[in-house]
Structures
1.
Amino acid sequence: MSVLVVGEISNGSLRAASKEAAYYGHLTAQKLGGECTVLLIGEAQDASELGVYGANKVLTVDPGSEGFDSRVYADIIKQTAQSTDAKAVIFMHSSTGKSLAGRVSVALGAGLVSGATSIPEASTNGYSVSKSVFSGKAIATYEITSPTMVISVMGNSFKPEAVGAACEVTANTLSAKTANTQILGRSTQSGTVPLPEAELVISAGRGMKGPENWGIIEELADCIGATTACSRPVADIGWRPHHEHVGQTGVAIRPNLYIAIGISGAIQHLAGVNNSKVIVVINKDPEAPFFKAADYGVCADLFDVVPRLTAALKNA
Amino acid sequence: MNSLVCISKTPDTTAKISFVDGNTAFNEDGVSFILNPYDEWYALVRAIELKEEKGGKVTVINVGDPSNDIIIRKALAIGADEAVRINKKAESSADVALQVAEYVKNNNFDIIFLGKETIDYNGAEVGAMIAEHLDLDYVSFASKMESNGDGFKVTRDIEGGIEEIALSAPFVISAAKGLAEQRIPNMKGIMMAKRKPLNVVEPVGFNGHVNVASFSLPSEKGGVTMVDPENMEELVRLLKEEAKVL
C-alpha cells in the first residue's frame, strides 16, 4: 500500500508546487500507513530533492512525446497507481492537476475531492477531507468511501517542511496511450513566482489612473519579492496583462499576504482573494467595501502611501 | 460541426450562504440561482460562434430537476438550438460527468464545451471526467480557439502564462475568460427559446464514492486595524511582528 503523488516539472526542474505535493503525500502516508512515492512524467534534474519533503522514492516515466497531454498522462498515472498499490493519488490543484484528477478518478473508479485544504482523516465509512467552497464563504467536509481516493491539494495550504534527505530516483518504463494533441508553444513570465503559488501578492486597480503609473507597484513588489496582480477592470482595458487578473473570473489565489491598492473590493474580486491569510487594503475612499474584508487598512492617496511603504520596507 | 455545451446552475455570487439538515445541505431557501458564468459567457457563446462559422447545431445539456428549466431556457434564448435535461438532481460532479458521457455515447457530437469550473464548488472536475469516460482529448482553461486546417488551435491558461495546442475533433474543452464575449439574450431570442425543443431524458444508475459529511462557516475575521498613512513603519512592524507574514 502506498500514497502516489503526481509531481510537476517545468523546463527540466521541479515546480515549487511539487514540493508541497510531496509534503502533503508524506503527511497522508503517515495517516494511511505505507510509503510516499512521487511520480514525475519527464525528467527533472533536482528530482531526488523531493526526498527532503517526505518522498520515500521518485519514479520517472518518459511520456514518449513532447508536452502535456491529459489523456496520455492519466493513463501513465493510472498504471503507476495500480502497480504501486496506491490507496491515495495526490495532485496539486493546478492547471495540470485539474486536467488530470478527474480523469484519473474515473480511470480508477475512485472518489475525488479537488482543492483539498486538509489531510485525509479516518471516518466512519472511509476518509474525510475538507475544502473551501462558495468562494471562501464556507468549508465542506467530504467523506470518500472508495478503496482508492484521488485528491487535488489547494496551493499554499501546506508549507513544505524538510523531513528527510535526498531519495532514490528510478526510471520506470510502461506502455501508455499515444498523444493525439500537439503542443505548439508555451510562454510564461520568467523570474517571478506564478500567482497561484505566490506567498506575497501586490495587487492594484483602477485607482492607479493609468498603466504608466505602475512603476510604484513594481518597486514595492520587487523590494519584498512579491508577485504583481490586478483587478478585472484593469485587465479588461488592457492596462495590465490578462494573466495578472485575480478574482472570480480570473485567478483565485491564497497568498500569506495580499496588498490591494486602489481596488474597491467588489464581491467578484473578493471571491478570488478572500482565502488570503492577511489582507492589507490601501484606498482613499473610506467607504470602499474592501476595508470590511481587510486585516489592515490605510485610508489615503495611494500615490503618497505606496512610495512611503516601499521606503519603510527597505529601511526595515 | 455539432457541439454539446454542459451547463450548470449555481447560486449567485452575492447569495447568502447557510446550511440546513444539521449542516449537511446547502440552504436553497431565498437564494437566487444563475447559469454558471463560465458556461454561459464563454463555453456557450463560443459554441454558438462556431456554428455561425461552420454550420451545425448547438445542444445544451443539464443534469437537474424541472426547476432548472429556467436556466436552460436562458441558454436557448442566447442561441442554443435545442436542450436536453437529464432528469435528476445531480448528486456530485462524478454523477454529472457520467450522465453526460452516457448521453454522448448515444448521440454524436464533435466538440463538448463546458465552463472551466462552477463558481460554487470550483472543482474543475466534470470536463476531465467526461473526457476519460469517452477516451477523448481534453483541453482545460481555454482562452482562445481558432480553426487550424481540419482541426483547431487552442490557447489555454497555465500558471503565469499560456500554452498553445493543436488538436482535432472530437474533444472536450473547458472555457476560461477570453474564449468568447458574453451575449445578452434579446427579445426575439427569448420568444424563440419558448418554442425550441427541451428533451427530458431519464438518468442512468450512479454509484457515488464521495458525499458531503458536513458544511461549516470559516471563523470570523477580527475586523480591520486602520494604520496612520503617515506611519508606514508601523504597518511594516505589524506585518512582521503581529501578522508574521514578512
Note: The radius of gyration of chain A is 21 Å.
2.
Amino acid sequence: MPPRATNSASHGKHVLPPPQAGEAAANVYAAVYEVLLGGMYVSTTLYIIGTLLALFQHVRVPLTVAWVKHQMEWHVFWHGLTHFRAEAILLLATVVLILTPVSRVVLSIYAFWVDHDRRYVGVTSIVFGVIVLTVILSRFAHLH
Amino acid sequence: MIPVLTYSWHFVGILFAAACFAGFFGALLGVGGGIIIVPAMVLISHLPIKIAVAASLVSVIATSNAGGSAYVEQHITNLRLGMFLEIATTLGALSGSILALFLQDWLMLFIFAALLAYMGYASFVTRRTDTERITTDSFRLAKPDRLARYLSLRGVYHDEHENKNVEYVVTGTPVGLGVSYLAGITSGLLGVGGGVLKVSAMNQSMNVPMKVAVGTSKMMIGVTAAVGAIIFFLAGLVHFPVVAPVAIGTTLGATVGTMVMNKLPSTLLKWIFAALMAYLAYSMVAKGLALHFGVHWPQLG
C-alpha cells in the first residue's frame, strides 16, 4: 500500500498520493486543483458583481441571438467593461468559466510533459485537439 | 414580437434557488445538475429550451469546478482515467451540440423527458453500496484489459467510511469509451453533464469504486460541457445574464453538497432524486405535447 502523503495543494490536509504514486503524478493533481479553484473564484466573483449591477441598472435582455452577438463585438464589450456595464462583466465571467476546463487540459499536457509521461501527453493532447476542432467548426461552419 | 427579459430580483431569486438545489444534488450524486436546471428554466421561468440548455451547459462547468476541485484535492478522482474517457465525451459533446442546433424544441423536450425517466430509474436501482465489494477486495482482484494495462489505469483511494485504502484495477475500457461517447452526446444535446451515464459505466462496467467514479465524473463533466458551451456561445445562444444566477447558485450548492455528502443517508437521497426525475419527466412530456400537438395533460402541483 502506498504511504500517505501531504499534497502541496491540500492546505495541510492529509491525503493519499494519486493512483500512480509519486511526485510526478502529484504535480498534475496540484496543477488541476489550482486551475479549477482559481477559475471558480474569478468567475463567481465576476458573476456576483455583474448580477448586482444588472439588478441596479435594470438591464433588459432581448432573448435573441442578435443581442448576444452584439454584446460579443469587441468594441461593445470593451466599452461596456470600461464603463462598468453589467452585460460586459457577465460576458467576461462566462468566458473565464468556459476557459477554466480548457486551461485545465492545457496545463495537464504541460504537467505530463514535465513528468515525461508521453502516453498521457498524447491522451490529453487528443482531448485538446477536439476542443480546437470545436472552435474551428463553430467559427467557420456556421452552425446556427 | 421579440421576447424581452427584464432583470428583476424575482427572476434572479427563482433561478438562484433552483440552481442551489441542482448544485447540491449534483455534488451528492456526481452529476452536473443540468437535469434539474433545464426543467426549472423551461417550466418555471418560461425560457425557450435552447437558451435553457445553453445556460445549463455553462453552469455545469461551474458545478464541475466547485465539486471537482474538492474531489481532486482529496485524490478521490482518477485523473488518468478521466482524461482517457474525455476523448470520447468531448467527441460526443461535439456531435450532440451540433445536433441540438438543428433539432426542433418539442423533440428536445421528449428526448429530455426520456433521459429524466432513465435517471430516475437508475437512481432507484443503484441504491446498494460498494461495501461488499470493498470487503471482499474484488476491486483489486479484477483482470485489466490490454488498453487499461497500457495506460496504467488503476488506482487507490482512502475510503473514510470504511476507514481503509481501497485499491482497484480498471477493466472494460471499450464499454467505458462507448458509454462516455453517449454521455457526451446527451451533454451537448440537452445541456446536462452526462454524469449519471459516466458514473454507472465506470462503477458497473469498469470496476471503478463508486466514490472514485463520482469524483472522476465530476471533473470530467467540466470539459464535456465546455465543448458544448463553446458551440452554443459562438452561435450566440448563451444569454450570460441568464447564466449568472444559475452559475452562482450551482457553485454554492455544489460546494455545500461536497461538504455534507458523507453525512447524509444516500438511500433517502436516491429516493428523492428518483421521485423528482419522474415528476420532471412528466412535466416535460406535457409541455412537448402542448407545444407540438396541442394536447394538454393535467398539471401536477
Note: Chain B has a mean pLDDT of 80.
3.
Amino acid sequence: MRKVGVLRFPGTNCDRDIWHAVEQVGDTPQWLWYQDRFNPKDFDSFIVPGGFSYGDYLRSGALAAHAPVMQSLKEASELGYPIFGVCNGFQILCEAQLLPGVLMRNSHLRFLDTMVDLTVINAHKRFGQKLEKGQKVHMPIAHADGCYYVSDDDLKRIQDNQQIYCTYVRNPNGSVADIAGVMNKNKNVVGMMPHPERAMYEWMGSCDGQKFF
Amino acid sequence: MQANLSEKLKTYRISQPEYEKICDLLGREPKGLEWALFSALWSEHCSYKSSKIHLKKLFGKSKRVLQSFGENAGIVDLGDGEKIAFKMESHNHPSFIEPYQGAATGVGGILRDIFTMGARPIALANYLCFGEPKAQRMSTLVDGVVRGIGGYGNCVGVPTVTGQTHFDPSYNENILVNAMAVGYFGKKDPICLSKAKGVGNHVVYVGAKTGRDGIHGASMASESFDDNSAAKRPTVQIGDPFYEKLLIEACLEVMKKDLVVAIQDMGAAGLTSSTFEMAEKGGVGIEMDLSQVPLRDSTLTPEDIMLSESQERMLLICEPKNFAALKQEFDRWGLDACVVGRVTDDKKVRLLWHGEVICETEPEMIVSSAPEYERTYEEHQLKWPIKKAIPQKGEGVLGDAKMLNTILTSHHGGDRSWIYNQYDQRVGAATANDCSHAVGVVRLQESHRGLGVVLGCRPHVMRMDPYFGGIDSVVHPSLQLATYGFEPLAVTDCLNFGNPEKKETMTQFVAALQGMNTFCQRLETPIISGNVSFYNETKNKNVSPTPSTGLVGLRPSVENLPHDSFYKENQDVVLLTFGSSWFSGFLGEITQATSDGYLEKDLSGIETFVKKLTLASQEGLFASGRVVGKFGLLYALARMSLEGMGAQIVCDQAPFTEVFYQILLSTNDVSRLSKALLSENVSLTAIGKTQKASLQWNEHKWATEELKNLYKKGWEASFAQLAR
C-alpha cells in the first residue's frame, strides 16, 4: 500500500475528494498541513488538490506557492518523488516553478464547469501509468484560470522533451496548443486542470479518472 | 419636538402605532441604542410581523422531522444515522441594488444557516426571477447575479446542483434571488442549536471583523423600492467566500470536539438578532461589552456595531474551561475568536461600552412582543370551475406545432447552460445529476444513498391562480422527484410577494400558502424552514406572487437513475395523465393569444400516484422520464430528444396546452408499467416509439440535431452581449 501525501492550504476545497479517490484505488492518504514541513522519505508520492487556496488573492496559486509545506515539496521534487497537481494544485505547482508555464484567466473570462474530452499525449510513470499515448478520456473541468500559456520557445522545448501530459479535444479556455496538463523536465511532477477525482464512478458521468491515481 | 420625533421614526423605519407600543412596553420613550434595536428586530425581515399569523398554521411535523421553524434551518432524519439540514432564503433587495455582492452574500448567508447547526454543506440550489432581457440594467443584473452566486459557491467549495430561472416583466424592477443550501450530518456529527445556556459561560465572537457594511440592511429589505434605490448601495453587505470556507472548517471542528454550547450566525440585523435571539431562546441574560468586538473601522459607534451586517461572523457560547481549546482551533484556521461577554441569570441583555452600561433590555420584550399584524385579505375564489376537456389538436397558437422553433430559440425555452456552467456543480465529488437535469442529485457520504434536490414554483401558474399555483409549487416538484425514484421528504420555502399592506398582495399570499400547505400535508412533506420576503414592489408595482419551494427526496442508490432524455431506441413512449386540470399555459400568456382552462383543486389520488411513480422508477420500469411542464407536451418531447435519440409520436392533444399533470416515459414493457402505475385519476397512453435522430409529431418532423441547435441559440438571441 502506497502512502500518498495530500497537501492542504487554507481555501483548498477538493482535498476530501482527492482523499477518497486515493483510498478508492487502494492507497493510503495522509494530510500535509500548509504550515508544516515533512520528510519526503515517509511517502510514496504527493498530490496538491484543487480549490481556492488563499481565496485566489493576488493570483491563483501565487500565495500557496510560498507556504512552508512547499519547501518540503520542492525537496521531494528534487529527490524525484512523483507529485501531482490538479486544478488549483496545477496552478500552485506552476507558481512554485515546479512546472513550466502559467495559468491565466480563461479566454472567455468566465468560470466554466463542463465535461471535456482529453487526449493523453505522454503517460506519467506514477499518475496515469495505465494510460496509453493517444487514449481519449472524459472528465469535468471547473475553473476560471485554466488558460495555459508558455512562450513559443518553451512550447517547442516541452513538446520535444515529451512533457505534454494531455490536451483538450475541444479547447474550452484558450490554452496554448490545447494543453490541459504538463510535466516538468524530469517528468516526476505533473499537473492538469481537469478533475480526475470527479470521474471515479459511472454515476459521476465517467470513471476514467480512476486511471489517474 | 414633534418634527424631531417623526424624523426619528423615519430614520428607524418605525410606524407611529409601533412607537406607541414601544412606549407602552418600556413605560417611557425609547432612548439611545434602544431605537436601533427596535428598528432592526421589529422590521418585517426579522419579525415576520405580517406573515406570522399565517405561518403558524403551516404543517411542519412528521416522524422524520427533528427540527422545524425556530432554528437556523430545519433538520430531517434520513435513517441509518444520517440527517440533513436545509433551508432557502431570499436576497432580492440587495441583489437588485448590487447584483454581484447581493447574490454572493445570499449564498454565504444560507450556507451559514446550515453549518451553524453542525451540518457540512453538500449542495446549493438557486431560484432566480429576472425581468425582460431588454429591460433597463437587466443584462448587468443577470451577469452580476450569476457571477456572484458562482463567485461565492465555487470558492467555498459547495456544488450548485440545481436551479430555476424565470423571466417576466413583473420582475423588471425587482428581481428575485433565492438560494437554498443542504447540509449533511453523518453518524458522529452533533446537532448544534442556538439556545444560550449555562450562567457564567463565555459569549464568543468568531470570524471576520465588524465593518460598516450592511448597517440598516434588515430594515432596507423591508421597504419598497423607489427611484433612489442606488443610494441604498452602502446597505448591501460584502462577502468573502475564502473567509467563509475557513469558518466552515473551524466551526465544524469545534462542534465535533464538543466545545460549543450554542451557536448562531450573524445574519440580518447582525449582532443584534444573534444576541437577543440566543438569549431569548435560552431564557437567560447576556452581558456584552461592545468595545471588545473586533473592528475593521475603529470609528464605529455602538449602534453601528449592533446593526452591521458584515459577513462571515458567528456568535457562540462556550464553557470557560473549553475556551483555550476553541481558540486554538480558530487560530489554526487564521480566524479571530474573542470573548465579548458572558451568560447571566437575569434574563436581560446588557450592552456595555468600555465597561459602562449603555443599554439594558429584556430580550423577551423585544423579540416576543414584536407586533403581529392581521393584514386585510379576501378569501380566494378558484378560477375556471366549469369543466372543459383538455383541448385536442386545436387551432391557433397552442395548436400550431411549428411554434416549437420559436419557443426553443427564446430565453423562455432555450438552453440555460450559460448560467449553470459558471457554477461548480461537482466539487465534493458526490454529484450524480448536475444542473442539466430536472432533479439535482448528490450521493450521501456514508450510506451511499441518493439525495434529490429540486425547486418548485412556476410564476406563470401563480399568475394564472395563486391558490393553484401554491399547490403546483409542491406537487410539480414532488412528481419530478418521484419520476427519478426519490421519495419526497420535506419542503423549504421562500415566499416572495409584494407589499403586504395591500389587500391584493395578502390575498395572493394567503391563497398560495393555503394551496401549498394543504398539499404538503397530503403528500406528507412538511415545511421545515424558509423565509418570507415582502415589499417586492417598485413604484407601486408588485412582482408576480412567487412562493418558491425547495424539496428533497431520498432514493436507495444513485445507480441507474432514469434519464431525462430518450436514449434507448425503439422503446414505447408512454404519456401518463393525472386528473383533468389544464390551462392555456405559458405560450398562451406570452403570445396573449388565449387564457382558458379548467382547475380541480382536489387532485384526488395524487398521494397514491406519487408513491406508485416513485416505486416504479426505483424498480427500473422505464428508461427515460420527464414531467411535462412549461410549454406543454411537444416542448417536453423536444427536450427529451436533444441527446440524439428522438421519437415518432402520434397524438391528438394540442401540443402546447399545459396539463396538471402529465409525465412522459419510455419503456420496454408498457403492460408492466401500467400495472404498476394505474390508480385513481391516472390514465396511460402509448403515443409512439423512440427512434434515432429525429422527432416526429404527427405530420411534423425535426432532426434532433436541428432541435439542439435551436435550443442552444435561445440564450444568445436574448442576451447577445453576455453569450460568449
Note: DSSP finds four helices and eleven strands in chain A.
4.
Amino acid sequence: MIECDLTDLICPLSKMKATQFVDSLSDGQTAKIWLGDTESLKSVTRELKARQVKLAFEHNGQNRFALIVTK
Amino acid sequence: MGQSNQDRVGGKGKGPDHKLKVYSDIIQLIAGPDNPTPLVRLNRVNPSEDFQIYLKLERYNPFGSVKDRIAYEMLKGLETGGRTVVEPSSGNTGIALACVANAMGIPVEIAIPKMVPEEKKVMLRFLGAKVTEADDELCPLFPTEGARGLVNALIGSPKTRDSYVSPNQYENEMNVQAHYRSTGPEIWKQTRGGVTHFFAGLGTCGTITGVGRYLKEQNPQIKVIAIEPSSPKHRLPGMKRITGLSEEFMPKILDRSVIDEILEVSDEDAYDTALELARKEGIAAGPTTGAILHVALRHAGSGTGLAVVISPDDAFKYASFYQEVLQAESARARKGKP
C-alpha cells in the first residue's frame, strides 16, 4: 500500500499535503496517511470526509496516527 | 584629480539624491520625510472648503504601495541565515517583500488568500516569489485567515521550520516604526502641522498605530479614525474587521489608545467611492482607498478641518475586481436603473 508520512507537519500544512496526496490517487486506490498530532488528524479527517473519501483509522502510539484512505 | 563618471552619478553604497532623483539601488526610493509620497487635495469629490481632504498617494512608493515602507524595515533587521522568507499577504506586503528581498538576494515565499485578485498573484510570480494559495477556511486555528495559518505551520512544523523565517507583519514592531518614522513625519511636514484628522484602514494595524502615535505626540487634538469592513467576509484585500475578533486573533501591534473612532464601510460604498474618485479627480486608486475615503467624505459633510486619507495603492492591481463592478454598472444601465 502506498504511504504518505506527514508526521512532521502541523495543521494546516498537513491538511494541504494530505489533500494533494489524495488528489494524486486514482479512483478506488487505497493508501495510508501518517499524521503526527490530533489537530492534524481532526482537520484531515474533516476535509477528506467532505470530499467523500472512505476512511479508516489506526492509532499507532501516542503521537502517531494513520488514516487508511480509499479514493 | 577629477571625479569618475560613477562618482558623479552616485555609485554603489552612496546615499540617495532626491533632488536629482539618482539612487544607488531601488530600495532608496522608498518614501521618507526627505522623499515623501505626494499629498493631493481632492476638489471635486469633496467641494467643502471647511473640511479639506488630502489623499496620501502611497502608490508612488517604488513597489507600488504603502507596504514598501515596512518591507525594508522588517527585512533589514531579520537574521535569515540562508532561510527562505515566508509571509502571509493579500498582495501588497508580498510584492514589497519580494522586491526588497530580490534586491538583497533573499528567497521569498508568499502565502496568499485565494480571493486576492489574479493581478497580484501574477506580479508575485513575475517577481520570482513562490506563491501558495490558501483557502480562508484552511486552518481552524486562524478561522478566516488560512494564509496566516499556513505560514504558522511552515514556521512551526519540525520538517520545515529550519528552512523558513517570517517577518510576521502582524507582530513586528518595525511595521509600526516604519510609519512612526516616515509616514507620520511626512504628513506633519507636508501639512505644516495643520492636519486635524487622519483616516486609515485597519489591516495589520501598523499604519494607524505608527502614524496615529506620531501625530498624537505632535498634537493630541488630531482625530485618528480607523476604517474596517462592515463584514468579516469582504472584497477589500488588505483590510481586516477587528470588531468582534477575539484577542487571540487581534494584530499584536495594534495600539487602540491612538485611535479615536473605528468606523465601518461596506464593499459597495468602497467600490462606488473608488469609481467616483477615478471619474471626478482622475485618481485611479484601489478599493481600500475608496473605503477609507468614503468615511472621510461622511465627515466632510459636518466637520471642519484638514484631513489626510491614506491611499494604500493603485487601481491597476484590481482590474479584474473593477471589471465585475463595471459589468454590474453596465447591466444596471441597460435596465435603466441608476
Note: Chain A is about 35% helix and 30% strand.
